[in-house]
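Handout, section B. The chain below has 84 residues.
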Amino acid sequence: MNDPWFTWLHPLSNMVVRIDELLDGHDQPTVDDVAILLTEIRGLIRPSELGDGYERSYYEALQRAPDVVLAHCEMKKLLTLPSV
């Protein structure tokens, strides 16, 4: 996607690629690998009205689309589940 409107989504799509690469790799992901990704994902889902780039665009998406709010809330719940 080269449309400038979607440029702000690159950090999120890059994270999806990293997760895919980790899961498709020859080695089993370690607990540390997963912990690092979870920390980075938690950082990605922090919208900011005053932020730049991704954070600001994420905030704006939450303001205009109820479906984004619902998905955001579900993601937050999943990321706060206790470790097993």
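Note. Residues 10 and 19 are 14 Å apart (CA to CA). Compare this with the example in section A.
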